[in-house]
Specification:
It is built from eleven helices and no strands. With 270 residues, it is mostly helical. α2 packs antiparallel against α4, α2 runs antiparallel to α7 and α9 crosses α10. The N and C termini lie far apart (49 Å). Keywords: Membrane, Transmembrane, Transmembrane helix.
Length: 270
């Protein structure tokens, strides 16, 4: 939630001061890379952590690895910040000629980012065998920072590639009305899914057996409950706030246009 608020404030700042766009984008990129590295180095934690959720869901909120590696804001900062940077970059592309030239660069960049993403994540399988001491480890700090940022890079570049494609089956599928509806609910799903998962797993009266059938049933129930809860949150909170925000932005935009108009300047000269 705090990253969402930070992102909104940064976008409002850029909207008010467009000349600061590059500075804000550079600051977000540096923060997404440096903050995770600093936290990993100073806290002497591992670069990343994988764990079996079956051993954590009994008391997820006090599970040490979940608290250290999943909940902190710096873990998800790259996904937010690089996504915002991609959106800002997309807004600067005017004209089909500029977009077509940039599209070729993006396609090559996406291939490179995919290789880096796959390589960094594949390295996690051999990382435990290296037996690197995590205490004040520069290697863990750099690797953990790049690993977290690699997801944000790929998301951002993929977004730009799809946004600049004029005709594509994938673009047509993602542009379908059903997908647009899910996109509107996606952030609310992200907000409520932890509470839904925690509430369901901690209120079962009997131990859960993790067979294929039970896994399908539980996953289906979690998805359905998350979507229903997200829909209620969207209708009660997100949609009214977005509507109010759009009205405020329209009001300030009209006010600024009026203040910079020729009639206002003539009156001011009088």
């Amino acid at each position: 939630m705090q990253l969402f608020l930070i992102g909104c404030m940064l976008l409002l700042f850029v909207w008010r001061f467009p000349q600061m766009t590059r500075t804000v984008a550079a600051s977000m990129a540096i923060s997404a890379l440096s903050i995770p590295a600093y936290v990993i180095y100073t806290e002497s934690t591992s670069a990343t952590m994988t764990f079996d959720m079956r051993h954590a869901l009994a008391e997820l909120r006090t599970y040490d690895h979940f608290i250290k590696y999943y909940l902190p804001s710096h873990t998800n900062a790259s996904g937010y910040f690089f996504g915002v940077i991609a959106a800002m970059l997309y807004k600067t592309l005017d004209g089909r000629d500029q977009q077509s030239r940039f599209r070729l660069i993006l396609q090559r960049t996406l291939s490179l980012c995919s290789i880096v993403l796959f390589g960094l994540n594949a390295f996690t399988m051999i990382l435990p065998s290296l037996n690197i001491n995590p205490r004040m480890s520069l290697f863990h700090a750099l690797y953990g920072s790049l690993l977290k940022a690699s997801w944000g890079w790929c998301y951002g570049v993929l977004f730009l590639v799809l946004a600049l494609k004029s005709k594509s089956l994938l673009v047509d599928v993602l542009s379908h009305s059903c997908m647009q509806c899910l996109a509107k609910l996606s952030y609310c799903v992200y907000i409520v899914q932890y509470s839904v998962i925690y509430g369901m797993y901690t209120n079962f009266p009997i131990p859960i057996k993790y067979g294929a059938f039970n896994l399908v049933i539980l996953t289906s129930a979690l998805v359905l409950l998350s979507l229903l809860t997200a829909f209620l949150l969207h209708m009660a909170v997100e949609s009214p706030v977005v509507h109010l925000g759009n009205k405020l932005l329209k009001y300030f935009a009209e006010k600024e246009t009026l203040s910079n108009g020729p009639q206002y300047k003539q009156l001011k000269n009088l």
